[in-house]
Specification:
Blueprint (H helix, E strand, L loop, with lengths): L2 H9 L8 E9 L5 E8 L5 H13 L9 E5 L10 H10 L5 H14 L5 E16 L5 E21 L4 E4 L4 E4 L4 E3 L4 E5 L1 E3 L2 E3 L2 E6 L7 H7 L8 H16 L5 H25 L8 E2 L1 H10 L4 H14 L6 E2 H4 L5 E4 L4 E4 L8 E5 L2 E5 L8 E3 L2 E3 L2
Antiparallel strand pairs: 1-2, 1-4, 3-12, 4-5, 5-8, 5-9, 6-7, 9-12, 10-11, 13-14, 15-16, 17-18, 19-20
Helix pairs in contact: 4-5, 6-9, 8-9
Length: 382
């Protein structure tokens, strides 16, 4: 799925355009016990309640693709009888009216979701009459297909903070009553995916609020899909692969050289995109072999390349890969010491050199003849 397809679904989550048929849910306490259930015809809700649930639904389709939103593919075994994809298809076809399937779904969430406290499982059913669009994105009246889908949101439920308030019954100021509040979703998914503005039963769009620590068990245990690294995780993993495999060869010059080579790949792709005017370009994949090739061209020894093999498989997996756009920042090159943080444009990073002067290590930053230095907002000369 791309940004336009996600936005198309989100735009419909308003009172006047929403077509959710049913919403069901289960409230779970910190001991994994079911406390209560929801089962409502969505459009019969009072406005205040309806708007709050729509906010939750929209949030489950929010964030950055590849980081908060991950498209997961079902393995072939999950598309066979008894597989997770087949189970979700049955749940969708029931339009959330089969209590046995709903009970099983809640069990799967509870088994695979690690929560420190109470939470609410919500699941919405919708049938979207997808309009035909012309090449210039103008909508036509004819329907292209009916996109029937489920949207699940898992929301933490927490006590409000203690505080003072006006107690109307006793006409005095005192400690206010604390109650339980449903917060924004921590995780969720859309099934099937809406790929190419059409039903894609082979994929699902997974949502995580925290891309640093996504709930992997939901991807694998609930949905039956292979875990996928978020963009944030990919950056962290790439750093650890370099640090752990290069060891004493992890020098400033080596890392800068690796960074420059990945940036060159990104710049070449951007230039190609401008020529072809491609709206949704494919990201640059960095497999184990391509990363080893970059390291070799950056002067890394054969011994360290062999270690990279092992470390990559441990951190990323044999069948996975990283994306160039995720592992380096194409907008800046960052250098940190114990008391200095330096941000420069990637194309300027090549000018920064490490150098030993009179036995002391330095980072040398060359300046143009007429270049000034800004000190606390004041333009100065050097």
């Amino acid at each position: 799925m791309n940004k336009k397809e996600v936005l198309e679904l989100k735009k419909r989550m308003k009172k006047d355009s929403c077509t959710f048929t049913r919403m069901c849910g289960c409230y779970v306490d910190g001991e994994r016990n079911r406390v209560t259930y929801l089962n409502k015809t969505f459009l019969n809700l009072e406005d205040e309640e309806l708007f709050k649930y729509l906010e939750i639904a929209k949030k489950t389709l929010s964030g950055t693709l590849g980081d908060h939103l991950l498209e997961l593919e079902f393995p072939l075994e999950q598309e066979e009888a008894g597989g997770r994809q087949q189970f979700l298809l049955g749940l969708r076809e029931s339009k959330l009216k089969n209590e046995d399937l709903l009970e099983r779904f809640y069990d799967l969430v509870i088994e695979n979701y690690e929560a420190a406290g109470n939470y609410l499982i919500l699941i919405f059913h919708d049938a979207y009459d997808v309009p035909v669009k012309t090449k210039d994105n103008l909508k036509l009246d004819e329907s292209e297909e009916i996109y029937e889908y489920l949207l699940c949101a898992i929301c933490p439920v927490a006590l409000t903070k203690p505080g003072l308030g006006y107690l109307e019954d006793s006409n005095e100021i005192g400690p206010r009553v604390r109650d339980w509040v449903v917060n924004a979703p921590d995780a969720g998914f859309l099934f099937p995916a809406f790929t190419g503005r059409s039903t894609d039963i082979h994929s699902t769009l997974f949502y995580t609020r925290n891309p640093k620590l996504p709930p992997d068990a939901l991807m694998e245990g609930l949905l039956g899909c292979q875990k996928k690294l978020t963009a944030t995780e990919q950056k962290q993993v790439f750093r650890s692969v370099l640090e752990d495999s290069l060891g004493e060869e992890c020098s400033y010059e080596t890392i800068k050289e690796i960074h420059d080579k990945i940036q060159d790949k990104i710049q070449d792709k951007m230039a190609l995109e401008e020529e072809t005017e491609e709206e949704e370009p494919e990201p640059i994949e960095l497999s184990k072999e391509s990363i080893k090739s970059i390291l070799k061209d950056s002067g890394v020894s054969e011994e360290k390349l062999q270690i990279t093999d092992q470390v990559f498989e441990e951190r990323v997996g044999e069948s996975n890969h990283l994306y160039a756009e995720n592992v380096v920042d194409k907008r800046k090159f960052e250098v940190k010491t114990y008391d200095v943080v330096l941000h420069v444009k990637p194309e300027k990073a090549v000018k920064i050199k490490s150098q030993i002067i009179d036995g002391q290590k330095y980072l040398v930053i060359p300046m143009d003849e007429n270049e000034n230095v800004n000190v606390n907002g004041i333009q100065t000369t050097v």
